[in-house]
Design brief:
Order of helices and strands: HHHHHHHHH
CATH topology of the largest domain: Tetracycline Repressor, domain 2
Strand content: under 5%
Shape: elongated
Number of strands: 0
Number of domains: 2
Structural class: mainly alpha
Length: 200
């Protein structure tokens, strides 16, 4: 009996980055539903089989491309000035998510994650958890430095501070701008900051 071997295309050197750049370009030109692996492969100049050897689904490809692009803008700074760092962080996130080539696609991915367990796990492991950990670390260091009230529930505080951005992103209830981020920071600091005249 003769065994038939099916050749599987191996991704060529540099193909992954070519694909990711193509995804980012298409995200700026199309809605999420209209982005197809075949079009990404054509734009990248590689075979679609190579693309599918890296990402079994479109959603996994898009989430890697988008968050690879915005990740440098989401780093929570630690200059020692919590108010300034929070303002910088919220402004950067609001601007990134307010980008029409980014925000609507993240919202679409979040919706799809409700029925796609693999995507949900990737979203949790690669997006939510690292950013949540960074926020927790920065809030905790501010609390230890006396810049944030000692009686705060930090998990609840983080939800309160970042929740409005995600709410607007996922439900489309308002625009996401740098001005919004700065305003959220101003309101948040008023409630989070230590008060010298208050007994904690």
């Amino acid at each position: 009996m003769t065994e038939q071997q099916v050749a599987v295309a191996e991704p060529s050197p540099g193909a992954r980055q070519d694909f990711l750049r193509a995804v980012v370009k298409l995200c700026r030109e199309r809605v999420y539903e209209d982005i197809q692996p075949a079009d990404v492969a054509k734009l990248a100049g590689h075979d679609e089989e190579q693309l599918r050897a890296i990402w079994p689904t479109k959603s996994l490809m898009v989430v890697e491309a988008l968050f690879g692009m915005v990740a440098p803008r989401l780093v929570f700074p630690d200059t020692g000035d919590f108010e300034a760092d929070l303002r910088s962080q919220l402004t950067s996130i609001a601007e990134a998510f307010g980008d029409p080539g980014v925000g609507p696609h993240i919202a679409a991915l979040a919706a799809e994650a409700n029925t796609d367990r693999m995507l949900a796990r990737v979203f949790l492991d690669r997006v939510f958890t690292p950013n949540r950990a960074a926020a927790s670390k920065r809030f905790r260091s501010a609390q230890e430095a006396g810049q944030v009230r000692r009686d705060l529930d930090l998990d609840a505080a983080i939800d309160m501070v970042f929740g409005p951005i995600w709410f607007r992103l996922l439900l489309g209830t308002g625009t996401l701008t740098a001005e919004l981020g700065a305003s959220l920071a101003d309101h948040a600091v008023g409630g989070l900051a230590s008060r010298p005249d208050r007994t904690e």
